[in-house]
Amino acid sequence: MKYSLYIIITISLGLNLFSCKSIENKNELPKKITYKTIHKQELDFKKKNVTGMVYSENLKSFWIQTKSENEPYLFLINPKTGKTKDKIFVRSTSFGWQGISNYENTLHIGDIGDPKRKRKSIQVYSIAEGDIKDQFTVPSIKTFSYPRGKKDAKAMVYHPKLKQFFIFTYGAKKSEVYSISSKLDKGTLKKVGEVNLQKVTDVQLSSDFSELLIVANNEVKVFSIKSEKDILSVIDTGMPIFQKRLNNCVFQSGCFYGHKNDLCLLVYNPIQNKTFYTLEQKEGYY
User: Fold this and answer.
1) Which residues are CB-neighbours of 29 under 8 A, at least 6 positions away?
2) Are 166 and 203 in contact (CB under 8 A)?
3) Tens digit of pLDDT for each residue in 100-134?
4) What is the pLDDT of residues 221-241, one digit of tens each?
């Protein structure tokens, strides 16, 4: 019985309120993070096609993107109320917006979705928050292509220390990872590895580069990064320090916010046709 002291009690996201059941993995060993749900909020728009979100420290709000074709809009969301503070038109195409990062008040949007594998190239749009005026902005555009064939991807993360974009392909068995320098306006992506994760839909890097959040196969995992120069090996060789899976509902996205790497988890409930989020405050490590 004394060994029961080592059982890790992970958080319950309060998702039963929204008719979602959580499935917790109790087989991992410490070190683990525990979180406390401090807020649950439904969004004021019913969009089941939300594909990414990031926190703006500058605006104290969340940016949310959708994958609606030919609707290149960003939504600025009040974290306390779930209300849309602003709807920004981005002068660009939006074939498949699937990844978004924010560093030093600059957004990077990955137009990387290609489920039918027809696109000759993909785009990354970069937007300085200070350049957004009157609900309108003109991004800088980068155009990239894969070295072999066309790929569908639903996750992109920007690593400011390495000045690299990392793109994670969407697959039923594994995810191929490609990268390219953010200094280039055009170029060919380089394959840098593969990770044993299915159906990767979101990847986020904490602002202090110490943690990596991945949404894959309707599961959220957080990994502790040991080296700023290597964000991939920890996925396959390291155990997640936090892990949560849903049943009946769908994890759409997740992001870090605040200086302690707290979490915001975005969920879609298909039965109620509602999109909501929970704010998770880090309690400690065990």
Assistant:
1) 239
2) yes
3) 999 999 999 999 999 999 999 999 999 999 999 99
4) 999 998 878 888 888 777 899
- A 10 A CB-CB count for 50 gives 20
Neighbours of 233 (CB within 10 A): 14
pLDDT tens figures, 175-202: 999 999 999 999 999 999 999 999 999 9
Residue 216 tokens, joined = 């894959």
How many angstroms separate the CA atoms of 219 and 268, rounded?
Answer: 13
Which residues, other chains included, contact 227 with Cβ-Cβ below 8 Å and sequence gap of 6+? Answer: none
Which residue carries 């309120």 as its tokens?
17
Question: Which helix (H) or strand (E) element contains residue 275?
Answer: strand 274-285
- The alpha carbon of 44 is separated from its chain's Cα centroid by a whole number of angstroms, namely 20
> One-letter amino acid identity for 141?
I
Helix (H) or strand (E) holding 212: strand 211-216
What is the C-alpha separation between 230 and 73, in angstroms, rounded? 33
Query: 12 — phi, psi (to 5°)?
Result: -105, 120
For the entire predicted model, the pTM comes to 0.88
Interacting residues of 8 by C-beta distance below 8 A, sequence separation 6+: 26, 28, 30, 32, 34, 286
The gap between the terminal CA atoms of the chain, to the nearest Å, is: 18
Rg (CA), the chain: 18
DSSP lists the bridge partners of residue 149 as none
H helix intervals, 221-263:
233-237
Question: In 3D, which of 190, 254, 267 has the Cα closest to residue 223?
Answer: 254
